[in-house]
């Protein structure tokens, strides 16, 4: 393999440019355990009364991460079509207590409560997933997942995929730019397929085919280069380092909060 | 076709993780059993996963919006059993890096995309001799989309039922119309898969698993 980039360490998913006083210092293995436990607990929350607590926890963790708030709000602003459909649909479809009615259209309290709960829970989970990704470098995240029992082959597949994702993306952009320079412009639509559009789809298929062929050829060279550097004799993803007592104490606290949330959610605690 | 975080009740997303653990384990076991050096397949699977990840961002104009290709059928055709772990990895990156889908719903999303990919790969291999490569690829691509749509809406309807919307006739109507709405996409994806596979057959037939055991 000619590229010297292959010897560079894997670029982290997390951006290290933000100074973070605490969440970056929470060691990856205890952090993954703690945040996954919190996510599992948040996903169980069905009581609207528990949502403020959930969001206080998210805000606290966010503050400890040192990430800019704008970055989070930008990501949370696009939670997905399905979530929006659920949140808009439920208040008009579920429940018997009418808050407002216009003809057959009625806003119902029970549906509104569920929509608020579902939307709040969903955004809190997205925020936690984002915190995990933004504050943990990918090799450390994969090593922590390995320590939790994820198979080595799957971790290595993830490591290699992430390693070449950006490169394949750049190649795809170069191919599209070259096609445009040669005069190709995507036109027409599935709605009104003109002659150009009918030519576009086979052209795009050939472009994707070319990308796959180039990726495959590159993969053969990558494998040979990796073998020369001892791939297969030593793990590609290093074993996870343990954690300091402070990190495990934080994980213990997160586990306690998670168990408490689940117990309160299912334990008949009054709303 | 991602299910966002927090939409599903615990039994569904935990069940999704169970299915994904089983199928990923089976796929990796198959890789270890059939290959002398199972790691030999990983760079190929990783680079193709990256290529699929990039190519699935391709948007086709479909007024008033646009649609993007799933390419799960094509993954099944090219990667065989390794398509399932590749989809798990792709969805993991989408969840952690871009916030699409989610970590709690990773298992169920992988099942929605991965089971049709495995079946599409099986359909391609089983029907290639008597349908020909092109039409076998067409059906693999189309079936990948239709099955993914069926699974997706089945899971969504199960979640809606959990939220207290049990109307059976409404469910049937919604399921039928939504799957019908996906038929044009299935046709486009089938044609696209057919063209890609015919291209690969001319240029690099090894990519269609002709010398692979998986």
List the helices and strands and how they pair.
The complex is a heterodimer of chains A (271) and B (214).
Chain A: H1 28-44, H2 51-65, H3 69-76, H4 81-93, E1 98-102, E2 105-108, H5 109-135, H6 138-147, H7 152-181, H8 195-228, H9 245-266
Antiparallel strand pairs in A: 1-2
Helix pairs in contact in A: 1-5, 1-6, 1-9, 2-5, 4-5, 6-7, 7-8
Chain B: H1 10-34, H2 41-55, E1 59-62, E2 65-68, H3 72-79, H4 83-98, H5 106-131, H6 133-162, H7 168-203
Label this structure with key terms.
heterodimer, A: 271 residues, mainly alpha, two-stranded antiparallel sheet, 9 helices, disordered N terminus, B: 214 residues, Arp2/3 complex 21 kDa subunit ARPC3
Quick gist of this model?
Chain A is mainly alpha-helical and 271 residues long. Chain A has helices at residues 28-44, 51-65, 69-76, 81-93, 109-135, 138-147, 152-181, 195-228, 245-266, and strands at 98-102, 105-108.
Percent helix of chain A: 55-70%
User: Any guess at the CATH architecture of chain B?
Assistant: Orthogonal Bundle
* CATH topology label of chain B: Arp2/3 complex 21 kDa subunit ARPC3
**Proportion of beta-strand residues of chain B:** under 5%
CATH secondary-structure class of chain B: Mainly Alpha
E-strand count of chain A:
2
3D architecture notes:
- The complex is a heterodimer of chains A (271) and B (214).
- The N terminus of chain A is likely disordered.
- Chain A is flat and about 60 Å long.
- Chain A contains nine helices and two strands, in the order H-H-H-H-E-E-H-H-H-H-H.
- In chain A, a hairpin with a 2-residue loop joins strand 1 and strand 2.
- Chain A is 65% helix and 3% strand.
- The N and C termini of chain A lie far apart (62 Å).
- A two-stranded antiparallel sheet of chain B has the order 1-2.
- Chain B is built from seven helices and two strands; from the N terminus they run H-H-E-E-H-H-H-H-H.
- The model of chain B has no long low-confidence stretch (mean pLDDT 84).
- In chain B, a hairpin with a 2-residue loop joins strand 1 and strand 2.
- Chains A and B meet through helix 1, helix 4, helix 5, helix 7 and helix 8 of A and helix 1, helix 2, strand 1, helix 4 and helix 7 of B.
């Amino acid at each position: 393999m000619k590229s010297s980039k292959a010897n560079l360490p894997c670029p982290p998913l997390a951006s290290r440019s933000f100074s973070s006083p605490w969440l970056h210092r929470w060691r990856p293995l205890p952090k993954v355990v703690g945040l996954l436990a919190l996510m599992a607990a948040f996903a169980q929350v069905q009581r609207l009364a528990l949502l403020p607590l959930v969001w206080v926890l998210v805000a606290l963790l966010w503050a400890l991460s040192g990430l800019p708030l704008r970055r989070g709000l930008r990501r949370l602003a696009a939670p997905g079509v399905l979530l929006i459909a659920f949140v808009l649909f439920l208040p008009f479809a579920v429940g018997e207590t009418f808050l407002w009615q216009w003809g057959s259209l009625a806003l119902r309290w029970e549906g509104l409560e569920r929509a608020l709960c579902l939307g709040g829970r969903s955004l809190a989970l997205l925020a936690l997933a984002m915190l995990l990704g933004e504050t943990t470098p990918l090799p450390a995240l994969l090593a922590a997942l390995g320590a939790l029992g994820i198979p080595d082959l799957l971790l290595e597949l993830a490591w290699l995929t992430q390693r070449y994702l950006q490169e394949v993306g750049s190649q795809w952009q170069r191919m599209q730019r070259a096609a445009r320079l040669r005069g190709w412009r995507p036109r027409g639509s599935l709605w009104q397929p003109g002659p150009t559009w009918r030519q576009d789809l086979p052209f795009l298929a050939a472009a994707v085919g070319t990308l796959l062929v180039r990726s495959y050829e590159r993969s053969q060279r990558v494998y040979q280069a990796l073998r020369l550097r001892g791939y297969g004799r030593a793990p590609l993803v290093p074993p996870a380092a343990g954690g300091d007592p402070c990190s495990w104490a934080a994980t213990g606290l997160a586990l306690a909060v998670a168990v408490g949330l689940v117990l309160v959610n299912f334990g008949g605690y009054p709303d | 076709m991602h299910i966002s975080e927090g939409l599903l009740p615990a039994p569904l997303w935990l069940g999704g993780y169970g299915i994904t653990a089983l199928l990923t384990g089976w796929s990796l076991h198959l890789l270890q059993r059939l290959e002398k050096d199972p790691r030999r397949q990983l760079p190929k699977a990783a680079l193709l996963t990256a290529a699929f990840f990039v190519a699935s961002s391709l948007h086709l104009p479909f007024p008033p919006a646009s649609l993007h290709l799933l390419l799960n059928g094509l993954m099944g055709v090219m990667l065989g059993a390794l398509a399932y772990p590749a989809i798990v990895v792709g969805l993991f990156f989408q969840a952690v890096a871009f916030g699409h889908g989610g970590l709690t719903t990773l298992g169920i999303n992988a099942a929605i995309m991965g089971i049709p990919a495995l079946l599409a790969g099986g359909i391609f291999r089983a029907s290639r001799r008597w349908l020909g490569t092109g039409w076998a690829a067409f059906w693999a691509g189309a079936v990948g989309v239709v099955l993914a749509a069926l699974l997706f809406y089945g899971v969504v309807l199960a979640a809606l039922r959990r939220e207290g919307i049990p109307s059976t006739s409404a469910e049937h109507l919604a399921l039928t119309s939504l799957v019908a709405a996906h038929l044009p996409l299935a046709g486009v994806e089938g044609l696209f898969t057919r063209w890609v596979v015919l291209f690969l057959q001319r240029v690099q037939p090894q990519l269609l698993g002709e010398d692979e055991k998986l």
